[in-house]
Amino acid sequence: MANLYVKSTGSATAPYDTWAKAATNPATAVNAAAAGDTVYIHQEDFTIGTDTTWTLAGTVSNPVRVICSNDAVNEPPQTLGTSKYTQNANAWDLTVNGIGYIYGFSFEQTGVTANAPLLNLIATDDDFIVWENGGYSITSTSSTAKITIGAVGENSSKMIFKDFSVTMGAAGQSITVYQPVEWYGGSITSTANPTSMFVIAGRSGSITVEGVDFSGLPGGTIIAPASQLVNGYILLKNCKLSSSASTIGSYTGINQGEVDIFNCSTGDQHYKFENYNYLGSLLIDTGIYANDGASYDGTNKCSWKITTTSYTSYANPYISPWVEKYHSGTSAITPYFEILRDGSTTAYQDDEVWGEWSYQGTASSTKASFTNDRRTVLGTPANQAAGVGLSGWTGEAASAWSGKLAPGSTITPAEIGMLMGRVYVGEPSITVYVDPKIRT
Amino acid sequence: MPIVSTSFESTVQADGSRNVIERYFDQDGNVFTRSQNVSASADIPTIVANYAAELSEQLAQQEFEQLVGQG
């Protein structure tokens, strides 16, 4: 559990265990550290003059800690600081592998250059790095500059960013992910319009982003499904969005992943929820809603607006997220959703739109039972039931249809617990408004 | 497979923003759909025109990669 020091005016005397004997380059001390050691980096800029690799030789229980400090008097230092690798019009890469924790360190490129400085993270098996209060800021005009998290064929690694900020410099630059990454706080922006800021490239890749500020993006797209290389999952939660950039693009292939967006907005709207995949999308709609339906603030109403793509079918429908409701009764009930078709009075049929419900139907067990109102596999399509009527909805066109999704017979929960429902849409290129409230 | 035509429909939300459904059609008859919420001041025709160009590039890239992969 040794302490190692980094300071440009140190004597570079191993084992770098005082400020006086400090290594003069962060890589020297970081790569000399053993599991459980702490590397203190003095608050200053260090020029990165070659491609550099940090190998954090920690273990999960004894990670290597790399901590920047503005206190070059005390050993160990008493206050935190920030430091960085910097380079002007060069493009040296930084690779950080292993198991460890980094506080306050950034990687910066200044000066115009067509070359690409890469930040490669957790590129070996079983890596786990937490990087707090750092950043990556580049001015490269190269479309190949990127942050790469994980590597092809890698297993069992994970990256966590806390208050980590990124500034990209050209359209094709991205954060490319092969292994799971969680990102809490900070900002992600660019001086150009990104084609897709996030790209999942490895089968183990997933991205969770919470509390990140995207508002500085001048345009472009945060998530372009057409740029995704595998079928991964991206979650944006409680983020501030850019009014100039699109959050998502269109799907052009089936293996382009699923995206959920919770409570993300350019402004002060706290009710937004979005779900996207190859088969369709779901947005919160406050322009069309059931008068006695779900509310986003206790007063004002909203609906789910589900729109399917041209690829949707009865056999391969868009499936909404579940709506959940705690149900304390064990009597027979008929759960149902109110739905609306806007712009046409023609009823949706049970091979186009149907519901599915999950309930605690097994006595003395947590095992769920399911029921639905889908057309049977070899059956003939039939109109879904009429709903509350257009007087029960607000915002729809003069030509509209009010319907109801409900199982053909009652269900009887055997146990109290969660009653859940969701909506399937098996018709391509249609829109359905759903009141996301399970009624019984 | 460039995008040869586009369409969109939008609905106004309680906060003035708009939910937009955009559809992009390529020369083979494929339809690509994008749904999003945009601000009240957003210029939707320009957004759609810009994205049509971007999507054309992405589709061309995909087509190139498929051809290279087959080769």
Which short descriptors sum up this protein?
A: 440 residues; mainly beta; 6-stranded parallel β-sheet; B: 71 residues; alpha+beta; 3-stranded antiparallel β-sheet
Describe this structure in words.
The complex is a heterodimer of chains A (440) and B (71). Chain A is built from one helix and 37 strands. Chain A has one helix spanning 26-32; strands at residues 3-6, 38-42, 45-47, 52-57, 64-69, 83-88, 94-103, 105-110, 119-121, 128-132, 135-137, 146-149, 158-162, 165-168, 174-177, 181-184, 188-190, 198-200, 206-210, 221-223, 233-237, 246-248, 258-262, 273-277, 280-285, 289-290, 303-308, 318-319, 323-327, 337-342, 353-359, 369-372, 385-386, 393-394, 400-405, 417-425, 431-434. Chain A has a 22-stranded mixed beta sheet that branches. Chain A has a six-stranded parallel beta sheet with strand order 3-6-8-11-14-17, with no helix packed on it. In chain A, β1, α1 (26-32) and β2 form a beta-alpha-beta unit. The radius of gyration of chain A is 27 Å and the shape is elongated. The relative contact order of chain A is 0.08. The mean pLDDT of chain A is 96. By secondary structure, chain B is α+β, with helices and mostly antiparallel strands. In chain B, 38% of the residues lie in helices and 38% in strands. In chain B, strands 1-2-3 form a three-stranded antiparallel beta sheet, covered by helices on one side. In chain B, a hairpin with a 5-residue loop joins β1 (3-12) and β2. The mean pLDDT of chain B is 90.
